[in-house]
Amino acid sequence: MDPLLSAALALAAGLAYCAYRQRRSLKSHRSVIADRDAEIRRLKSKLTALERDNADNRARHTTNFDVAFDLLLLLDDNLALVMVNRPASRLFAGPNPIGKRLSDVTDSSELLNLVQVALLEEENVEEQFVINGSNYRARAQVINCNKGRRYVGVALQDITDLVNLNRARRDLVANISHELRTPITRIRLIIEGLFLEADKPKRKASIQSLKEIAMETDALLWLAQDLLDLSMIESGEAILRLVKTPLARVVDEAMAQLESQAAMKELSIVSYVPQKYDVLCDADQLKRVFGNLIHNAIKWSPKGEAITVTAIEQADEITVSVFDKGPGVPENLRSRVFERFYQADVSRSGDEGTGLGLAICKHIVEAHGGRIWAEGNSQGKGGHFLFTLLRADASFKQDEAIIESDPPREAVSESLSLN
To answer: Is the residue at 12 inside a domain?
Structure first.
């Protein structure tokens, strides 16, 4: 064979073999690439699922974090804030405290000390302190994670209302003890003076002593009624039965019940309520409002003065006013005097009271669909309380219960709870 032809055939065979090897290698590479693409797609799908699960978990944790009543914080071991729920955001100055050190976003040394002690001792730490005028009960717990990382979880419960309630109840117990002790002691002394004197008591002195006993007994009954009314209001058992009632008659009955107390201080109670005014009310409950306001006026009025009750008609309402010549209510306290257990300045009256009378008035008046407030006396120094009632010829609506105007006196109207 021609050597040149042989060389050409050998070269062709070599090239064909090389092409064959390359095709096999390319096919193998394509298979590997396809497998890798499939793996990449699987990993991407898995990553997407993990990111979705992570987002769902984060949303659940964030929601649980934010809907909690407690204030929740999570800090790292450098005391930088990692998570803060919405209720806790009011503790910090600035819009976003995340990533900032605790000492940079709050002035509370008690909170900072709580976290530091928890990190140092690595155990649960509980404290109670005040931040920005609010009382908190706080608990800190250290959380150990992988690679030696540590976090501190802090839960703060706002107990301001509880502290105020406990203080109010303590004050109530103290005031009731004082209120009970004073009339009981006086009654005992008066009775001893009547029956233990060497000489037979004179009739005039005896009558005066009996009047004083009656006055102190009225004080005890008034205290018992305040406590009963408060209990019924809080339990929702106080019921209003609204009927058309002459306002002047209710005022006269309330004044008659307090005449003896007014006489002891030489006070006069004068009514300028027109006989033509009819209101839609529960007469017994409304009498309680007048009784509390007049009783309050008697307590604060100096001897020899007059207490005045007036009423004027305004649109669908009757506005009632009770004036006295006492010290009056300072402007900055006029909204607070209707709070339960609130005591005004007792140094001017010498009589502490229970702080329930005006709060009970507020509940009753609002249950009638009216409002009550205190003003300065335009006639000069003195107390001035006003409240509104619905006229009997106007419609009444409260909590979806509607009482039409001018119902028959014999009929029992809709019952409304004093809540």
So the answer is: no
Per-residue confidence (pLDDT) for residue 210, from 0 to 100: 73
- Count structural domains, the chain: 2
Q: Is residue 106 within 8 Å of 115, Cβ to Cβ?
A: no
The answer to whether residue 149 is domain-embedded is yes
| Predicted local distance difference test score (pLDDT) of residue 401 | 35
- Looking at residue 97, what is its pLDDT? 83
* Same domain as 153, residue 242: no
In sequence order, what are the beta bridge partners of 141?
Answer: 153
Q: Please enumerate in sequence order all residues whose Cβ is within 8 A of that of 85, keeping only pairs 6 or more positions apart, or say none.
A: 65, 66, 68, 71, 72, 73
Distant-in-sequence, close-in-space partners of 380: CB < 8 Å, separation ≥ 6: none
Given a contact cutoff of 8 angstroms between Cβ atoms, the answer to whether 416 and 367 are in contact is yes
Per-residue model confidence as pLDDT tens digits over 334-384? 878 887 666 665 444 444 455 678 888 998 899 899 999 998 765 556 789
In a domain, 321, yes or no: yes
Answer yes or no: do 385 and 262 share one domain. yes
- 268 and 394 share one domain: yes
Q: Of 223, 227, 307, 222, give the one whose Cα is nearest residue 263.
A: 307
Domain termination residue (choose one: 158, 180, 198) = 158
Determine the Cα–Cα distance for residues 136 and 157; give it in Å rounded to an integer.
5
Instruction: Map tokens 């006492």 to a residue.
Output: 326
What residue numbers bound the domain in which 307 lies? 237-417
Low-confidence ranges of the chain (pLDDT < 50): 198, 346-352, 396-419
Residue of 248, 290, 245 lying closest to 403 (CA atoms): 245
What is the pLDDT, as a whole number, of residue 164? Answer: 85
